[in-house]
Amino acid sequence: MKAVGFEAFASLKAEEEGEWLLEAFVPPHDFNYLIGPRSLIILGKEGVGKTTLYRALLNYAQPYYLTVEWEPSFPTVTPSKIEGLLEMVRALFQSIALALLKRIANEPYLTSAPEWAKSFIYSFARYALGEKWQEELSARGLSEFIFILSSSSPFPPSLSSSPPLCMAELIKAISSLGLKGIWIMGDYLDKWLLIDKEMAVECTKAFFSALPLFEVPGFCFKMVFPHGPGLSELTKASGIERRRIDIYRLSWSKEELRNIVERRFQVASGGSVSSLSQVIEPEALPELISWLERWGGDCPKGWLEAVRPLAFSYFSSASGRPLKKEEWLEVRRSIPPRLILNAEEKKVIVGWREVEDIPESLFSILAYLNERAGKICSREELYFKAYRKLHAVPQSPAEPGWEEPWSWSGVLDNLLYRLRQLIEPDPADPVLLIAVRGKGVKLERLL
Asked: Rounded to an integer, what distance in angstroms lies between the CA atom of residue 7 and that of residue 5?
């Protein structure tokens, strides 16, 4: 195993990472289900590892299946109308034809298939590529097939009018090439959502309601889609409701997340480091794991982002020894986790962990500090303006809302304590909610 060093922690974007990412991949516990014959829509939120899983599935399938990486153009007509559905089917068939010809071009031994199979494949390709098939082949670097397709047999009308029958015959043909079937793989919905979210969801839902396409043995979809607000309509596609397609929600246990981090260290070190106990002294390991859980939440990217400062320190050191607890504490204090507040939904995210059930009183104080991030707020303004929601801090007993300091100081201490327990990765060593002796409190926020 070649050591890739800190590169393994640098980007944390699967689409930008090299071939070593497949070595760093830790399969979910039910990976065998994912590589099974069922069509799947794999749902996952940001940072959960959808693209990494997609690359791993593609890598697994390529030797056994015709893999078609499908990235259709945004539909011009809603697929709920028949012309819209036909537009997407035509685009799908074209992608299958191109993938099949590329496979034959790259693996010449496939041309030893029975004549009937080759004849069907070439006639299907010419049909699927449409009227401008010659231009399409030239543009894709497949000009060597122009002569072959020119002399191919006409495609049977009975098949051109029935996509399921067409797919069934194509599966038979490619089986003679030694392939088990066809996997249609897609990771494009994020791009569609940027164009028109409502249209993207409607189009996708309509397409996956075309049930007959998903009832051909050996033909399946493995689609990776984002999961979030407004996307629940996808699960109402009739193909899903009638169990022609399964919904799989990508998630990880704490043990799996730790395995992902340790595997990343293993790839980074070329195999010499396989456990976090080799990176940090054993006495600090429980605190490190707790830190990763409270920063990283339930996302691989969150855990990797949280451990990145430690990885940088470890791989930057010439000693190769585990970091001492004091060194780790110093490293983590230098980079606080991101803090995101959604005032409308009363939602707080620290790092990649969503803070659950935060009381209104604590949210008000945090929102007040967040608006003034990096600035010291006096204890008086936190109590009277943030907590009690007065317009100004009372300066004397004569002013409305006045309270003696001894009566509210303990209340504020308790509120700040509870807030730290909720948001700090380590409440005993705060990196977000910082008390400044004699002046007040400030919120450190990574911009």
From this structure: 5
Count of other CB atoms within 10 angstroms of residue 162: 14
Q: Given the structure tokens 């496979």, which residue do they identify?
A: 103
Instruction: For helices 300-316 and 325-333, give the axis angle rounded to 10 degrees.
Output: 120
Do 378 and 305 fall into the same domain? Answer: no
CA distance 120 to 447: 58
- Sign of dihedral through CA atoms 250, 254, 255, 261? positive
Give the SS3 label for residue 42. Answer: strand
In a domain, 49, yes or no: yes
Q: Where are the alpha helices (DSSP H) in 107-196?
A: 115-129, 133-139, 146-150, 157-160, 163-175, 189-195
Same-domain check for residues 297 and 374: no
Write the pLDDT tens digit of every residue in 263-299. Answer: 999 999 999 999 999 999 999 999 999 999 999 999 9
In terms of domains, do 270 and 239 share one?
no
Domain count for the chain = 3
387 & 430 share domain: yes
Strands (E), 230-368: 245-249, 339-342, 347-350, 353-355
Residue 443 CA to residue 21 CA, distance in Å, equals 36
Give the dihedral sign, CA 234/236/237/242.
positive
Cα separation of 418 and 412, whole Å?
Answer: 10
- Distance separating the N- and C-terminal Cα atoms of the chain: 37
Residue listed under structure tokens 């090439």: 177
Report whether 247 contacts 240 (CB < 8 A). yes
Mean pLDDT of the chain: 90
Question: Could you tell me how far CA 92 lies from the centroid of its own chain?
Answer: 24
Domain ends where: 293, 308, 333? 333
What backbone phi and psi angles, to 5 degrees, belong to 140? Answer: -95, 5
Mean pLDDT, residues 380-389 taken together: 96
pLDDT tens digits, 134-176: 999 999 899 999 999 998 889 988 888 888 899 999 999 999 9
Owner of token pair 């300066």: 395
DSSP 280: B
Q: In this structure, what token pair is assigned to residue 366? A: 């945090």
Structure token pair of residue 224: 């990776």
